[in-house]
Amino acid sequence: MKNEITFPYPYIVERLDQYYGLKSSSSKKILSKEQSKKRTISKRGSKKKFSILIATFWSFPHVGGLSNYISALSKGLKSQGHKVDIISPNQFSTSKVKHFRESVTPNLKSFFTRRYGSYNERILNHKRLIYVYEKMLETIDLEKYDILHAQDLFTANILGRFNEGYGKPLFYTPHGMFTFNRLKFNIIKKGSVEEAYFKELESKAIEYASHIIVLSNSFREPLIKLGAKNRNITTVITGIDYPNNQRQEKETPPQKLTITCVARLGPRKGHNYLFEALSRLEKYTTSIEVLIVGDGQMREALEKQRMALGLSMVKFLGSRDDVPSILSKTDIFVLPTINDSLPLSIIEAMHSGTAVISTNCGGIPELIKHNKTGIIVEPGNSEQLAHALKFLITNKEARNKMSTNAKIFAEKHLTITSMIGRIEHLYNNFWGGELTHET
Fold first, then answer.
1. Domain made up of 257-413: CATH architecture
2. CATH architecture of residue range(s) 10-240+417-432
3. C-alpha to C-alpha distance for 143 and 136, rounded to whole angstroms
4. What is the C-alpha separation between 27 and 22, in angstroms, rounded?
5. CA atoms within 13 A on the CB side of 272
6. What pLDDT score does 62 carry?
7. Strand pairing partners for 213?
8. Over the stretch 239-274, which tens digit does the pLDDT of each residue have?
């Protein structure tokens, strides 16, 4: 029988009560990791093939790194004989979603207004989304799964509450630090009720998780600040199944170098800094072409910037499904991102044997070893970026050496086989109750 969900979550109410200075009477016991581990051990067996639920609060399939990661994880696990289901909110009936949304909204407004005198619009909307997703997940028979793997903090909270009655191994893979990033970009304010709300959800995701699998070591410090133990975190760098394309002949004149950027055209990907850097390389504009692959909200603004800076060598290709082919003709790959975790486009570029320039963000320095497998510059620094571009444009020997080193690194460490092998190892250890903590 599924746990009956009280709503809103008692620990969220407690945290909001603290924020507003109320004495909270709400409490809810959460399984400690030791309790959860004991329940898992009691269910261990000799099974080698698992039934696995991968769940995400975000749409799937979708454009972006999260969707690509889930696809790769599912494909890799299935190739090893495991049964895998993927659940996301957009897979459920739109009529039911509408019904739940319309029924819960007035109740939420009433609850927050009676308790706190008003309601926060962002929290109201978010709590409504969680409630609808939760009601959808209530229809899933969790008993049939051996492993639960949440791909975000919100799913970890929902599955964590359900899992109190099952004691299944619950893995949590954050694909970004939700509250930290929203504070960093002023989407929410420091000291606000929104910060308190989202931090509580992040802390509980950590508490509910049997183990946390992170994409890079850059996640460790912020997770530890939220209450995670270093021994309960394992880094598994994303791997991909990349086609074994040979470097192709380019249609451009042989004296021209091709520079490619593959990224969503959003404000955090830093295309504007790339354009500023290119404007500093006027001497080389006739010897390069720059391909911008991707689409998004910033396209119009970036096209205007290209015109204003006179960057005639820049071409917008839009969204493409032949990225490996484009990369096989690329000499220099650039990702000028100002906020990222572990961009798939860099991993693809490394597999393609392309020299890479990117920024000191998230786990990127764990992929790009400065001056060995590529060049790292500070995010938002167009002057450094221009210098790096000039160096690789004018130094063929360094460019070739970095591209070769990048491909060797990718083929050794960034394959789907290596990623799935490490995740399978964690699944097996938790199912058997004999976890050996890794780094």
1. 3-Layer(aba) Sandwich (3.40)
2. 3-Layer(aba) Sandwich (3.40)
3. 16
4. 14
5. 13
6. 84
7. 234
8. 998 987 666 665 655 679 999 999 999 999 999 999
